[in-house]
Each structure stands twice: as structure tokens, then as C-alpha cells.
Design a protein that fits this description.
By secondary structure, the chain is α/β, with parallel strands linked by helices. It has 13 helices and 15 strands. It folds into 2 domains: about 60 residues, Alpha-Beta Plaits; about 220 residues, Vaccinia Virus protein VP39 (Rossmann fold), CATH 3.40.50.150.
Length: about 350
């Protein structure tokens, strides 16, 4: 069935704003409809206020040691420590380190960075999608919205530089940065294609890939710590347009993966309109797909099955969420799908 009409979704996504939401929105500088939606998600105003406060706290950058070039990540940590950086290892990712304090020079200007010994992530949650998808050296992987290559290069690292990753993005500037990162990090199993990702099945054929990662373009409602303007620049129409593109890309991802293959869908947004709503539509519209279990890498929150006037499949409880006030990282929605 076709994607719902924009005016229908605007009506569905719109909420009646309470006085409490208006007060908190004014206090923390958010749009009032966003705050009301957070109450709909958590059902507790104290939790909502904790979430709003957490968006004021910065994120620790994360150094991902590039094991394609560095055989001993302890050696990298030692070198960065001599430059004044204080690092803390990430328990669930042995080659990643939180940056607790900056050094004498910028992380992007060290000799080690220029030599491709590490990649800098804005926070911990960006590490999760490639780890959950867990590609093998024998896989043919599609990164459907590759951006500047943070997840593309991570996928290649997990694969040990073997197999093949096709990285697709439509943005010329991002693709230029992606190619630069591939060269710096010594990644040689990635093919870069600048194109509209929705055309992938026409170019590569349906079912060509064994795994697909779609970290979809979104409103960024989970990374307000990074961009404070996201507190007030997104309206309901923006949410609708984002969810439409996400739906189209996710349908494309499922067409692109083979039977028995996996699609990892994620957004750096805590908006259900960009998470469960999109996946629920796809489950209804695409025959032969199921929600797969995700390993408990961190103490995830489960996916939402009710939000406002919407009711979603109980299978979406298998999707997972992270929140800044709970997990100390970006707000993310992640769902693993298997094509039957």
C-alpha cells in the first residue's frame, strides 16, 4: 500500500499540548509539542525533565582504534595519553575508548589521527549498529546512507578488511569526506557510489546483498547535545517528511537484501514517528520479513508498541532504544530485520 498522505500523518502526529509541557518547554528551550510527546513516551513528568536536562550535558567523544592498522590498541592509548588525553575503555567494545579529557592538541590533528590509527565518533551509540549487524568477511554489505563513513569504516573493520561493502550516499560533500576517511584509515574493501539510495535495486539487482545497514537520515532528535538548534527547528511536517524518506529507504533495503539476510535500521532520533512507526508500516507492506532479536550489548530499553493514537505490532518490542538520561549516550532507535 502507498505511504499515507502527508496531511493525514500531520493530523496523526499532532498532539494537544498541556500546560505542564508548555512550562517545561519554555524552561529548557524546546518546542512544546516535543515535550508533550516525551510525556506520551514515558508517562512521568519527572522522567521527562531528566531527559530535557540530559540534553544539556555534553557527550564524551569516542576513539575507535582502527585494528586494520593497529594490532595493539593499548599502544594507541599510550601514545594519546602522552599527548594529554584521558581515555576510558568501553566495556562492550574492546577497541573503543571514551575521551574523558582532551589533550594538548585536537583529536583531529594528531599524528596518530592523520596516520589512520583511529576514528573519532561523537558518542557511544554510533558504535552499536555495525556491532549488532555483525558482518562476516564473506558478506556483501550495503551501507545505504553512508554519510562521511563512520559506520562504513567500522563495518570494514569488523570484517577484517575482507568481503565487500558498498557505501551509498547522494550528498557530494559527504561522499568526498567518505573517500578521504577510507584512504586515511586504509580501508580497501569498500566501493563508494554517489547516488540516490532508493535506486540501489535497479543498479545492483534485488537480493544482491547479504546484509544492509540503514542508518537513516533523520531529524536528529537524539543528538540534541551535539546540535542545540534541534530543540526548536523541527516541526510536525518535518517529522512526516523524514518518516516518508525513511520508509522508502527501508523498503529499498529489504528489496536489496537476499532471503535469509539481515537489515539493520537505525536513527539518531528518539521520535517514535521515525522509529516504530516506520518499521510497523514496512512490516505491514513488505511480505516476508520479521523482527529479529538484538543481543543485550547494553541495558537497552525495548521498542514502543503504543504512542498517542498509534498502535504497533508487539514484535517491535524486539527493537531497542537508548536515551541520554539513562544510558549516557545519544538517543538511538535500532531494529534488526530478517528477510524470510
Amino acid at each position: 500500500m502507498p505511504f499515507p498522505k502527508i496531511d493525514e500523518l500531520v493530523k496523526l502526529f499532532s498532539v494537544d499540548v498541556s500546560e505542564r509541557a508548555r512550562v517545561l518547554a519554555s524552561r529548557y528551550g524546546f518546542r512544546d509539542y516535543m515535550v508533550e510527546r516525551y510525556y506520551m513516551m514515558f508517562g512521568d513528568w519527572d522522567v521527562v525533565e531528566e531527559l530535557l536536562k540530559s540534553f544539556d550535558r555534553g557527550l564524551n567523544k569516542v576513539v575507535r582504534c582502527n585494528t586494520l592498522k593497529v594490532s595493539n590498541c593499548g599502544y594507541l592509548v599510550e601514545r594519546l595519553s602522552r599527548l594529554g588525553f584521558t581515555l576510558r575503555s568501553v566495556g562492550w567494545c574492546g577497541y573503543a575508548f571514551e575521551v574523558l579529557s582532551e589533550g594538548f592538541v585536537s583529536l583531529g590533528a594528531t599524528h596518530e589521527f592523520l596516520a589512520g590509527m583511529y576514528y573519532v565518533h561523537r558518542g557511544l551509540a554510533t558504535l552499536l549498529p555495525p556491532i549488532i549487524l555483525s558482518p562476516k568477511p564473506s558478506d556483501r554489505v550495503l551501507d545505504l546512507a553512508a554519510g562521511v563513513g563512520g559506520k562504513t569504516t567500522h563495518l570494514s573493520q569488523i570484517m577484517g578488511g575482507s568481503g565487500v561493502v558498498v557505501a551509498v550516499d547522494v550528498d557530494r560533500v559527504k561522499v568526498r569526506a567518505l573517500r578521504s576517511n577510507l584512504e586515511r584509515l586504509g580501508v580497501y574493501n569498500v566501493v563508494v557510489v554517489r547516488m540516490d539510495g532508493r535506486l540501489v535495486p535497479e543498479v545492483f539487482g534485488e537480493g544482491f546483498f547479504s546484509k544492509v545497514l540503514l542508518d537513516a537520515p533523520c531529524t536528529g532528535e537524539g543528538i540534541i547535545q551535539v546540535d542545540r538548534s534541534r530543540r526548536f527547528k523541527t516541526d510536525v511536517v518535518d517529522l512526516v517528511r523524514a518518516s516518508q524518506l525513511q520508509y522508502e529507504l527501508l523498503m529499498t533495503a529489504l528489496r536489496s537484501v537476499c532471503s535469509g539476510g539481515y537489515v539493520l535500521y537505525s536513527t539518531c532520533s528518539i521520535a517514535p514517528e521515525e522509529g516504530e512507526f516506520v518499521v510497523d508500516l514496512v512490516l505491514n507492506d513488505f511480505d516476508g520479513v520479521e523482527v529479529a532479536d538484538i543481543p543485550k550489548i547494553v541495558d537497552f530499553y525495548s521498542g514502543i508498541t503504543e504512542f498517542g493514537r498509534s498502535r504497533f505490532s508487539d514484535d517491535l518490542r524486539r527493537c531497542v532504544r537508548t536515551y541520554p538520561h539513562v544510558h549516557g549516550m545519544e538517543g538511538f532507535f535500532i531494529c534488526l530485520l530478517r528477510k524470510l
